[in-house]
Amino acid sequence: MNILEKIVARKQEEVAVAKKLKSISDLEKEPLFSRVTVSLSAALKAATSPQIISEFKRKSPSKGVINGDVFPEIVTADYVKEGAAALSVLTDIDFFGGSFEDFSKAREANPGIPMLRKDFMVDEYQLYEAKSIGADIILLIAACLSPEQVRTLSQKAHELGMEVLLEVHNAEELHESLCESVDIVGVNNRNLKTFETSIETSIELSEQIPDSFVKISESGLKDAETIQRLYKHGYKGFLIGETFMKTANPGAALGDLQNDLSQFNNSNPLVL
């Protein structure tokens, strides 16, 4: 059993327990369930420069603890101050050290910005959870879902008023799982088997993603030159977590990248 299979198996156990503790009708009564969501896809479509989706992540299976001495409300507020287009907050406990509490603190601190519930969605119940804690976008990972599951979960997410980010790692996942109820396609540059990253993955898949879908790139994004290169290939958003979180001040790290992007864009407007 590989790490992804372990995570999915554990997630199914978590969902089974959660259903016994709180029903869908209970989730629907939560104050944030009726909140009007904010569209990330619309913001990215309208953008005329690379947009950063900044992630709050304490640890990962491949890196272990990345930053254990941080507060979600402070880090995410700093991200927003430095121009983040959206926030991604991990809610997986066992493998990423996240929680609903992290998400809720970030949501309270940043009520008006699009927020992605970053987790491994395997059951419709989790969509109701996401809506109840104030998520605007949910993540569907093609590698751990069947094409039918992607369709049904994405359609339900739309019914609940949330947008859908479909994460793919290769052409096979893209072509099998992409459907009309997906809003954003995220290409993860990390190989799930080796955990190595290569932005060539995003470049290779860029022309295979129809223009009707917003494209974002994920993992292995560390510098302005890389981001600007991918932007030229049609990527509008860039999801970055570890690069920021491994520093003492993640918000300041985003600010430095934003400055580098501005300078790079001004001095290299035609660089591919």
From TrEMBL:
Gene name per UniProt: trpC
Annotated ranges, domain Indole-3-glycerol phosphate synthase: 4-254
Iron recorded as keyword: no
Catalytic reaction equation(s): 1-(2-carboxyphenylamino)-1-deoxy-D-ribulose 5-phosphate + H(+) = (1S,2R)-1-C-(indol-3-yl)glycerol 3-phosphate + CO2 + H2O
Name this protein carries in UniProt: Indole-3-glycerol phosphate synthase
Species whose genome carries this gene: Dyadobacter psychrotolerans
Pathway: Amino-acid biosynthesis; L-tryptophan biosynthesis; L-tryptophan from chorismate: step 4/5
Gene3D superfamilies registered for this protein in UniProt: Aldolase class I
InterPro entries, per database record: Aldolase_TIM, Indole-3-glycerol_P_synth, Indole-3-glycerol_P_synth_dom, Indole-3-GlycerolPSynthase_CS, RibuloseP-bd_barrel
HAMAP family: IGPS_B
Any single GO BP term: L-tryptophan biosynthetic process
CDD domains per the UniProt record, alphabetical: IGPS
Key words, A-Z: Amino-acid biosynthesis, Aromatic amino acid biosynthesis, Decarboxylase, Lyase, Tryptophan biosynthesis
Lineage of the organism: Bacteria, Pseudomonadati, Bacteroidota, Cytophagia, Cytophagales
Record family assignment: Belongs to the TrpC family.
MF GO annotations: indole-3-glycerol-phosphate synthase activity; phosphoribosylanthranilate isomerase activity
EC number annotated for this UniProt entry: 4.1.1.48
